[in-house]
C-alpha cells in the first residue's frame, strides 16, 4: 500500500496536532516539554513501516510512578498501547503486549473494560532481575548484572511469540539514560561536547532510569531496553518505534544528547534523556496521543476508518476511569488517581484525539 500525497498531508497534520496542541487546549501557562524531540519525530515513517511490513508486533508500555500505595503506573502509556493493540489486531496483525509486574494489573484492567482476551492478545511479563529491591541486579543496568533479562529476551525471540516478529513498539516506556559509550556513538554534526557531558552526567548517574523529577526508578523498571540491545542482534529484521513526550522514554536515543542540554525547558532533561534509540521516533505532548495518531495513520492508509469510529469521549472516558480505579493507574504529573493524563484534564485531553479523528475523516 502506498502513502499518497493526501494521506501524507493528513499524517503531517496529525503530527502537528499531537506536538503543538496549545490552540486546542487553551492552557496558556502550560509549557510543552517535548519540544526538543519534535524535529526528530517521524510519524509518517512509522506508519509506512507498519503498513508495509507489519505482521507480528509486540507493544511495550509502563512507566512506574514512585508515589502512593500500592505502586502504580502512569495513565499515559497503557491507554495508547491498548487502543493500538486492539486496532492493529483488527487490521490482521498478530499482537502481544509486554510490560513488567508494576503495569500488569493496569493492562489486565484495560483488557476487561475493552472486552479483550489474552488468548487473542497475549500479555507478556518481562521479569525483574531479583526479588530484593536493593540487589545490584535491580539497581544496575550493565549486562553483567542482567543475566535473567538477557536470557528472557533470548527465549522470547526464539519462542512462539518472538519468531517472525516484525515490530517492537515502545509507548511511554522509560529507558536508561546515557553512558559514555552511547553518548560518543550518537550521530551528530561536529565533535561531541565531552567535557559538558561529563560535567552534567557524572559516572554514578549514568545508565539509570529516571522520572522527569529525577527520581531514580531503576530498581522498579524491568530491563525491557534489552529487547533492542539484544533482540535486534538475534532478529535484525525487526523494526522499532518509540513514542515519547519528554525524552526519558525508549526511542529518544535518536536525539543527540546536547540537543536536550541546549534546548530543554529545565536542567533535568540532559540527565534523564534515554540512550536507547529506535528506528522511528514519534514525539507528542502526551504519549497516548502518539499511539492514537499512529493507529489513525495506519487505519487511514489501509482504508479501515471504521476502527476509529468507536473512539469517542464516552468510550475513552470509561476506559480511563476503569484504569484509574482498578489498575491502579495514576496521573504522572499530579501523582493522584485523577481522571486526567499528564496533568491535562480529560476534556482537554480528548480534544486532541477528536482532532486526530477530524483530520482522518475530512
Keywords for this structure?
362 residues; 41% helix; 11 strands; 6-stranded parallel β-sheet; alpha/beta; inorganic pyrophosphatase (n-terminal core); 16 helices; globular; 3-stranded mixed β-sheet; single chain
Model description:
With about 350 residues, the protein is of the alpha/beta class. It has one domain: inorganic pyrophosphatase (n-terminal core) (Alpha-Beta Complex), CATH 3.90.1640. The chain has 16 helices and eleven strands. The chain has helices at about 5-20, 20-25, 45-55, 80-90, 100-115, 135-140, 145-160, 180-185, 195-200, 225-230, 230-235, 255-265, 270, 285-300, 315-325, 345-360, and strands spanning about 55-60, 65, 70-75, 95-100, 125, 165-175, 240-245, 280-285, 330, 340, 345. The protein has a six-stranded parallel beta sheet with strand order 5-4-1-6-7-8, with helices on one face. A hairpin with a 6-residue loop joins β2 (about 65) and β3 (about 70-75). The two termini are about 20 Å apart. The mean pLDDT is about 95.
Amino acid at each position: 500500500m502506498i502513502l499518497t500525497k493526501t494521506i501524507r498531508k493528513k499524517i503531517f497534520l496529525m503530527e502537528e496536532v499531537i506536538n503543538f496542541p496549545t490552540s486546542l487546549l487553551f492552557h496558556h501557562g502550560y509549557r510543552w516539554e517535548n519540544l526538543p524531540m519534535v524535529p526528530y519525530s517521524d510519524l509518517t515513517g512509522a506508519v509506512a513501516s507498519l503498513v508495509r511490513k507489519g505482521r507480528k508486533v509486540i507493544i511495550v508500555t509502563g512507566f512506574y510512578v514512585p508515589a502512593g500505595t500500592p505502586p502504580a503506573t502512569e495513565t499515559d502509556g497503557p491507554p495508547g498501547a491498548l487502543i493500538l493493540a486492539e486496532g492493529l489486531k483488527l487490521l490482521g496483525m498478530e499482537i502481544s503486549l509486554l510490560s513488567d509486574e508494576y503495569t500488569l494489573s493496569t493492562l489486565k484492567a484495560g483488557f476487561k473494560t475493552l472486552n479483550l482476551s489474552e488468548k487473542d492478545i497475549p500479555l507478556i511479563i518481562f521479569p525483574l532481575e531479583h526479588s530484593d529491591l536493593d540487589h545490584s541486579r535491580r539497581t544496575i543496568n550493565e549486562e553483567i548484572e542482567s543475566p535473567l533479562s538477557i536470557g528472557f529476551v533470548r527465549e522470547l525471540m526464539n519462542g512462539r511469540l518472538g519468531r517472525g516478529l516484525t515490530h517492537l513498539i515502545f509507548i511511554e516506556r522509560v529507558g536508561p539514560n546515557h553512558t559514555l559509550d552511547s553518548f560518543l556513538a550518537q550521530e551528530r554534526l561536529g565533535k561531541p561536547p565531552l567535557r559538558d557531558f561529563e560535567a552534567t552526567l557524572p559516572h554514578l548517574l549514568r545508565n539509570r532510569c529516571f522520572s522527569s523529577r529525577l527520581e531514580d526508578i531503576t530498581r522498579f523498571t524491568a530491563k525491557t531496553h534489552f529487547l533492542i540491545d539484544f533482540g535486534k542482534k538475534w532478529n535484525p529484521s525487526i523494526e522499532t518505534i518509540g513514542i515519547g513526550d519528554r525524552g526519558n522514554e525508549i526511542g529518544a536515543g535518536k536525539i543527540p544528547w546536547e540537543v536536550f542540554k541546549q534546548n530543554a525547558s529545565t536542567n533535568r532533561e540532559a540527565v534523564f534523556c534515554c540512550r536507547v534509540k529506535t528506528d522511528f521516533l514519534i514525539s507528542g505532548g502526551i504519549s497516548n496521543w502518539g499511539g492514537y495518531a499512529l493507529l489513525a495513520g495506519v487505519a487511514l492508509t489501509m482504508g479501515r476508518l471504521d476502527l476509529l469510529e468507536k473512539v469517542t469521549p464516552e468510550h475513552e472516558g470509561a476506559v480511563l476511569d476503569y484504569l484509574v480505579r482498578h489498575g491502579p493507574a495514576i496521573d504522572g504529573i499530579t501523582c493522584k488517581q485523577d481522571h486526567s493524563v499528564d496533568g491535562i484534564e480529560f476534556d482537554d485531553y480528548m480534544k486532541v484525539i477528536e482532532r486526530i479523528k477530524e483530520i482522518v475523516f475530512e
